[in-house]
C-alpha cells in the first residue's frame, strides 16, 4: 500500500462534521451519521449527519425565513459579503486544498487550483450583484410606458457532485446570493467536508443566518433530492450530475413547475486535424483528458486524430502519459491520484477490456494498481478505437485516452455529433475557415479551439441535448436565479411640445 500522510489543517476549526442550518452547526434529528472515506487510503476521514426529509424541510424553512431580509439588501451590500467570502477562501486556500485532496483524492497542486478557481466565482458574482439591470421598452399603446425589473426567484435548492467539491458549490451559491436568493445546498456524500469549510468561511464573511444552508446525506440522498424538488417553498433547483438523475429531478420538479438548470453528463470529442501543431495538440489533449484523472464532465472522452498525423500524435501522446506518477495526492511529484471509489475503477476497467476485445491496442497502462490501493488505475492510452466500442458512446470518467483515426472533416464532425450529450468539444487546427466551420458545426454548449482547458468564471458553462440546459458562471449565470417582472404604466399622456 502507498504511504499516505495527511498534512494538518492550519485552521482546524474548518473541519466540520455537522450540517450548517440557520447559521448553526447541527446534527440530524435522528442522530444518524455516515462515514466519509479517503479514496487513497480507504481510511475513514470522519462522519457527517444523515439528513432526512424532516431535517431538510427545517433547512428550507430557514432559507424561507431569511429570504425577505436578504432580497431586500442592495446589490452592493451583497457584493461586499461575497467579496469578503472570496478573500477568506483565498486566505485559506491551502486548507481547502488539503480537504479536497483528502476526500476527493486529486493531487494537492490540482486541489489548490480548484480552491482558487472556486473562490473566483464569489469574486465574479460580487461584481455582478450591483449590475442587475432591467429595460425600458417602447410601448405600442399611446400613453403607456413599459419597464422591466429583475427579481430573485426565491429559495433555491442546489445539488452538487463530488468531482469538484469546492468549485461546483460556489458556482451555484455565488450567483444565487448575488441575485438575492437564499439557498439549501445538498453537498455530495463522498466529499462533504470541503463544502462545510466553505460554509464556515461564509459565516465568518458575514452571510446572515438562514441565507446559506448546507445539508448532507448518503443513503438519504434521493429523499433529500425529492424533498427539494417537490417543495412548494423552493422555487428553483440547480443540479450538476448524471443525465439519468437529471431526468428524474426534472420529472419531480414538474409537479411544482420549478425554474431549473441542469449541467449533466458529457462525452467530449477532441479532434486533431492534419494542419494542427501536433505538440500543442498533444499538450492540450493531455491536460483535457487526464485532469483530475479524467473525472471531469468536460474532459476529452473520444480523441479523434486525422490519419496523416495519427502515428506521430499517438507516439507523443503515449510518451507524455508514460511520464505520469500515480500515488497519494499529498506526495511530492505525484501527478495523478486515485479514482473516487471502486465502482469508478470497475467502469474504467470494463471500458478498457471492451475496447481490447474489439481490437484496440493498449500503448500505456490498462491495469488496476493494487499495490497502491483499490481505487487506483493506471493512466491509459488506447489506439485503434472504433465506433462499436463502449467508450465511443459512454462517458468513461477515468484516465483513459482513447484515440480514434479519421479521414475527413465531414466524417469527424458526424462522429463527434453522434453522442446524445453535448457539453464540451475541442479541436486543433490552424485553418481559420475550418475553425469557424467546425466550431459552429459541433453540437455542444462549449467549444475549445486550440486549447484543452475552457473553464473560467467569466465564461458561460453549460451544454445542449442530454447535457442539460442553463448556464453557470459569466454574465448569464445570475439570470438563472432571477425572474423578469414587467411593469406597465398607463395614462402617461403625450409628450409636451413647446
TrEMBL record:
Protein name as catalogued: Succinate-semialdehyde dehydrogenase
UniProt entry keywords in alphabetical sequence: Oxidoreductase
Cited PROSITE patterns: ALDEHYDE_DEHYDR_CYS (PS00070), ALDEHYDE_DEHYDR_GLU (PS00687)
Active site location: 263
E.C. numbers: 1.2.1.16
TM annotation in the entry: none
GO terms, biological process: gamma-aminobutyric acid catabolic process
Upper classification of the organism: Eukaryota, Fungi, Dikarya, Ascomycota, Pezizomycotina
Domain Aldehyde dehydrogenase: 25-487
Reaction catalysed by this enzyme: succinate semialdehyde + NADP(+) + H2O = succinate + NADPH + 2 H(+); succinate semialdehyde + NAD(+) + H2O = succinate + NADH + 2 H(+)
Pathway: Amino-acid degradation; 4-aminobutanoate degradation
Listed InterPro entries: Ald_DH/histidinol_DH, Ald_DH_C, Ald_DH_CS_CYS, Ald_DH_CS_GLU, Ald_DH_N, Aldehyde_DH_dom, Aldehyde_DH_Superfamily, Succ_semiAld_DH
